[in-house]
Amino acid sequence: MPKLKIAVRTGVGVDRVDLVSATDRGVSIAITPGANTNAVAEGALAMMLTLSKKLSPLTELVRNNQWTSRDGIVPGDLEGSTLGLVGFGRIGSRVAQLAQAFGMRVLAFDPVADVPENLRAESMDALLSESNILSVHVPLNEKTRNLISKREIELMPQGSIIINVARGGVVNLDAAHEALNSGKLSGLGLDSFDPEPAVFHECFNHPNVVLTPHVMGLSQRARQQTFAAAAQAIKDFFNQTGSVEIVNQPRGEN
């Protein structure tokens, strides 16, 4: 494609884009921030509710005619729980708004983004130690790979829940599976995997794990907004009008 000038990544993650080659060939890579923010945030809340309310095991209980066993499965509450956000960009901040509507206490840690003082955790360890539910909203890179692993999980309260609707590889699945089996974690929600399509991991069979195939940002409304934003980015790029989010600096003409 010798005449290619711009390519648009629907969404914001560019971990699967060869930025080096694009830059060398003079191809601008644009993203569409904000178009699916609410969809992803709602997905995170859906997983929190599913896991805290124990919807999957309770569904199986009714399905298997085990009504009298219901006292052995006690639903939890979002209200009064502490939500820890790792990353406070567009999606993380929207999750905070939704969680507060449920009466949750929200804390956030992000060394880059501006976190309001009333939500700011002093450190990652401080955040982990208070998080009944931990929701991850960071990109995947060398610094964030296995960011949540055995050490981090051990700092969390007993029976905590981890949600990852960001990028696979940020949460170490071996460590999470071990914690699920020990009861340290009571739930794990995953919408992203490394690699994708997901390669089977033994934690996938755990009854307190919720899995979706990286679709939380692909709701009907989000799809419309995302592709409209991509088309607008291309138009603005060639017309040199509007604000186009370019993530690289092409070196020369292609």
Description:
This protein is of the alpha/beta class and 254 residues long. The protein has 2 domains: 6-35 and 218-246, Rossmann fold, CATH 3.40.50; 37-211, 3-Layer(aba) Sandwich (Rossmann fold), CATH 3.40.50.720. The chain has helices at residues 19-24, 37-52, 55-63, 90-101, 124-130, 150-155, 173-182, 220-239, and strands at residues 6-9, 28-31, 82-86, 105-109, 133-136, 160-164, 185-190, 209-211, 245-246. Strands 4-3-5-6-7-8 form a 6-stranded parallel β-sheet, with helices on both faces. A 3-stranded mixed β-sheet has the order 1-2-9. Helix 7 links the parallel strand 6 (160-164) and strand 7 (185-190). Helix 2 crosses helix 4 (90-101). The longest helix is centred in the C-terminal third of the chain and has 20 residues, at 220-239. The radius of gyration is 20 Å and the shape is elongated. The relative contact order is 0.18. The mean pLDDT is 96. Pfam families: 2-Hacid_dh (PF00389), 2-Hacid_dh_C (PF02826). Residues 45-215 form the D-isomer specific 2-hydroxyacid dehydrogenase NAD-binding domain. Residues 1-247 form the D-isomer specific 2-hydroxyacid dehydrogenase catalytic domain.
